[in-house]
Design a protein that fits this description.
Elements (H helix, E strand, L loop, with lengths): L4 H15 L3 H14 L6 E5 L5 H6 L8 E6 L2 H6 L10 E6 L12 E7 L8 H11 E11 L3 H11 L11 H11 L2 E8 L2 E7 L1
Parallel strand pairs: 1-2, 1-4, 2-3, 4-5
Antiparallel strand pairs: 5-7, 6-7
The structure holds S-adenosylmethionine.
The site of S-adenosylmethionine has 20 residues, from helix 1.
Length: 201
């Protein structure tokens, strides 16, 4: 099967993402995960992981997950993240797959983190159902951006091309979808510089 347009786009972007200076984002994420977010548990799925910024975050945290599965549709993104050395306390697996069809059995993960990737999924409600399927009892899903949905949508419109119409819905809308699936929404908050949803299976 050929690569989708999104896959081609992100494959082409991989070297740019790898070269970006993201120290400020990493600092903000460490702060969020250390102080404001519940622990995603021992076995965590990083959906739309890109070049693996969350690994840079986990390696600065006191309680990193035991296993992190890095999943992305773009092979080039996954390969660009490979140059990072091993994490001291975390086993990392990289998987190339489409999040609409997660190649994992039911109840496999304790937590799923979707950082800066949700707008790019063509069927967002179906993806949330997949998250529900692969989460264990009391598993947590976190959907996270370091900006308000209006800013994210404006940015995609200005980039144009295949991501022009990639839309991040308001937290209230995604929260309602999560509840319809059976999740309990623990947090749904957005403000300048933050978009955060935490939900419990
Ligand atoms: C904006 S990038 C963010 C990457 C990473 N989370 C970060 O912040 O550095 C979005 C990522 O989602 C991935 N992606 C897009 N659609 C996907 C899909 N259907 N399944 C899995 N990954 C996907 C892209 O390949 C890309 O790496």
């Amino acid at each position: 099967m050929g690569r989708s347009l999104h896959q081609q786009f992100f494959d082409q972007q991989a070297h740019i993402w790898k070269a970006m200076d993201r120290r400020d984002q990493i600092r903000r994420l460490v702060e969020l995960f250390s102080r404001a977010l519940p622990s995603p548990g021992k076995r965590v799925l990083d959906v739309g992981c890109g070049t693996g910024i969350l690994l840079d975050v986990f390696c600065q945290m006191d309680q990193a997950p035991e296993i992190v599965v890095e999943l992305d549709i773009s092979r080039e993104m996954l390969c660009a993240g490979r140059s990072r050395g091993p994490l001291p306390n975390t086993l990392v697996w990289s998987v190339q797959a489409d999040t609409h069809r997660l190649p994992f059995p039911e109840a496999y993960f304790s937590g799923i983190i979707c950082f800066s990737a949700f707008p790019h999924f063509s069927n967002q409600r179906a993806v949330l159902e997949e998250f529900y399927r692969v989460l264990g009892p009391e598993g947590l899903v976190m959907i996270l951006h370091l900006d308000h949905h209006r800013e994210i949508n404006r940015m995609h419109a200005s980039i144009g091309g295949v991501v022009r119409g990639d839309r991040l819905p308001p937290v209230t809308e995604v929260g309602q979808w999560l509840m319809n699936i059976g999740f309990m929404v623990l947090r749904a908050r957005e403000q300048r510089g933050l978009y955060l949803i935490v939900a419990l299976k």
